[in-house]
């Protein structure tokens, strides 16, 4: 499952709430951005320098990759995703829209969900309230978010199967639960003939 949505929209909380039920396997991305104090190498991300990231690209080690905020590289290592899929697990890719488009091109059967804030104003306020970033970083993330929302909700887009508005966490969790359950039922139905 691909899950996208602006920083601060609540993707991580949504996924955590359904983790026990669906036994998600998380894809650990690689990035060239700096590690924050709370993040752990190999758990939250693989933190790579730019030459190493570019080498991984040339070695074909990424399922998808993108240059984000005009600044940092982010990418999904291919092999762990394939291993978990082969083991029959639902793999969660928390990636932005350019990466999501690439995954859909390679894996048309993947399931894409885009999480939306109740409004752009509310998202802006959430980014300020969580006190994680400096003001210029907040503005950059907000600008990025507006662009992503425009792409993800454009008429005729093929990247996302569903949009979930995170206006209320319980309601949004139930909606994602229902979408995933329906999807799994359909797969089980078609596998059974
Ligand atoms: P953050 O720096 O807040 O952890 O992530 C910034 C953005 O990069 C988020 O929108 C997140 O979904 C996206 N991202 C994280 N990992 C990947 C990845 O492997 N590939 C792509 N394309 N985007 C990613």
The CATH architecture of the largest domain can be named as 3-Layer(aba) Sandwich
Shape summary: globular
Q: What is the number of helical segments per DSSP (H or I, 4+ residues)?
A: 7
Quote the distance from N terminus to C terminus: 23 Å
Q: Report the CATH superfamily of the largest domain.
A: P-loop containing nucleotide triphosphate hydrolases
CATH class of the largest domain: Alpha Beta
- The secondary-structure element order is EHEEEHEEHEHEHHEH
Q: Approximately how much beta-strand content do the residues carry?
A: 15-25%
Structural category is alpha/beta
The poorly predicted ranges are none
Kindly report the spatial arrangement of strands forming the biggest sheet. Answer: 2-7-1-8-9
> How many strands, what sense, and barrel or not for the largest sheet?
5 strands, parallel
- Rg, rounded, reads 17 Å
Structural key phrases:
Rossmann fold, 9 strands, 193 residues
Q: Could you walk me through the main structural features you see in this protein, from its secondary elements to its overall organization?
A:
The protein is an alpha/beta fold and about 190 residues long. It has two domains: about 1-25 and about 90-185, 3-Layer(aba) Sandwich (Rossmann fold); about 25-90, Guanylate Kinase phosphate binding domain (2-Layer Sandwich), CATH 3.30.63. It has helices spanning about 10-20, 50-60, 80-85, 95-105, 120-130, 135-150, 170-190, and strands at about 1-5, 25, 30, 45, 60-70, 70-75, 90-95, 110-115, 160-165. The strands form two sheets. A five-stranded parallel β-sheet has the order 2-7-1-8-9, with helices on both faces. Helix 5 runs antiparallel to helix 6 (about 135-150). The longest helix is centred in the C-terminal third of the chain and has 23 residues, at about 170-190. Bound molecules: guanosine-5'-monophosphate (5GP). Guanosine-5'-monophosphate binds near residues 29, 33, 64, 75 and 96.
């Amino acid at each position: 499952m691909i899950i996208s949505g602006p920083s601060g929209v609540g993707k991580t909380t949504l996924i955590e709430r359904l983790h026990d039920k669906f036994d998600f396997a998380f894809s650990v991305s690689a990035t060239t951005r700096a590690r924050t104090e709370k993040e752990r190498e190999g758990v939250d991300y693989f933190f790579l320098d730019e030459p190493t990231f570019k080498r991984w690209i040339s070695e074909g080690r990424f399922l998808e990759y993108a240059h984000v905020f005009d600044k940092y590289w982010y990418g999904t290592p291919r092999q762990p995703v394939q291993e978990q899929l082969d083991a029959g697990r639902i793999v969660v890719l928390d990636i932005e829209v350019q990466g999501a488009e690439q995954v859909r091109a390679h894996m048309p059967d993947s399931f894409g969900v885009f999480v939306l804030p109740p409004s752009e104003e509310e998202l802006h306020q959430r980014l300020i309230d969580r006190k994680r970033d400096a003001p210029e970083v907040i503005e950059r993330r907000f600008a990025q978010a507006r662009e992503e929302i425009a792409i993800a909700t454009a008429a005729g887009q093929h990247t996302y199967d569903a949009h979930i508005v995170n206006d209320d966490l319980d309601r949004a969790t139930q909606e994602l639960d229902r979408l995933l359950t329906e999807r799994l039922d359909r797969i089980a139905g078609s596998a059974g003939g």
